[in-house]
Design goal:
Blueprint: E1 9-11, H1 12-19, H2 23-32, E2 38-40, E3 43-47, H3 48-66, E4 80-84, E5 87-92, E6 98-113, E7 116-129, E8 132-141, E9 144-151, H4 155-158, E10 160-164, E11 187-190, E12 204-209, H5 213-226
Antiparallel strand pairs: 1-3, 2-3, 4-6, 5-6, 6-7, 7-8, 8-9, 9-10, 10-12, 11-12
Helix pairs in contact: 1-2
């Protein structure tokens, strides 16, 4: 060790602050191996050399991506998707009756799932979430709502929507739990990094573009499968 200089060591919080991202995003990069690091007990650490290498790779990826045509979805499954007319849906209320919500845009999607011919309906509307009126998307299997998405705070510009990930028991996926294999290939981030506001969940969510209906459907299929609806 004589004559050698020890590298600077960074914590997850310090890396997140430096990169101006959420800590959960840094943890995912470390856990996947995209950002090299090491663990001391349960705590992740990263050297300045590894962080510089990671930033350099990101710069190369941006330059490469700028030369490539944009892709909306990684989930190129054989869905048969047809646009349908605007529709209303009656949400049941406690004590009886229903609250009718209008969806100004809709789709009907069909494919074989687990040997069964399944049809899901997708509705785009507007509803309050985290203290703001937002673009909302709901996906039903039959008359059962399976998943919902809420628009980002800058949805008009970025077109992003976030849908919370619920595990088999119904609990939300926390930032400190491993992302299930079923969600590999999805963009997964903390919900309140996209939907910022009052009482926004701090747990993990699928993030999609408003035009990426296939990824929304795949999220719904995972949830419906875990709930044993299909």
């Amino acid at each position: 060790m004589v004559g050698q200089t020890l590298p600077q060591i960074w914590t997850v919080k310090e890396i997140a602050g430096y990169l101006k991202v959420d800590e959960s995003a840094v943890l995912r990069e470390l856990q996947s191996g995209s950002l090299h690091g090491f663990q001391v007990g349960k705590e992740w650490r990263c050297s300045d050399t590894d962080l510089l290498s990671y930033i350099s790779k990101l710069g190369s990826k941006v330059e490469h991506d700028q030369l490539q045509p944009p892709e909306i979805s990684e989930h190129d499954v054989n869905w048969e998707i047809a646009e349908i007319k605007p529709f209303d849906f009656g949400w049941p209320k406690k004590g009886g009756g229903s609250y009718v919500e209008h969806y100004d845009k809709g789709f009907e999607a069909t494919r074989m799932i687990n040997g069964r011919h399944c049809t899901l309906r997708v509705g785009f509307g507007n509803r309050e979430a985290a203290g703001l009126m937002r673009r909302r998307v709901t996906i039903w299997l039959g008359n059962r709502a399976v998943v919902e998405f809420a628009g980002s705070n800058d949805h008009d510009k970025d077109g992003l929507l976030a849908g919370i990930i619920r595990l088999r028991g119904g609990r939300q996926l926390s930032p400190y739990q491993r992302v299930p294999d079923e969600y590999k290939g999805f963009r997964v981030e903390r919900y309140n990094s996209i939907v910022e506001g009052r009482r926004a969940s701090t747990n993990m969510a699928v993030v999609v573009h408003k035009d990426d209906v296939k990824s929304m459907l795949e999220h719904a299929v995972i949830r419906a499968t875990w709930k044993e609806l299909i």
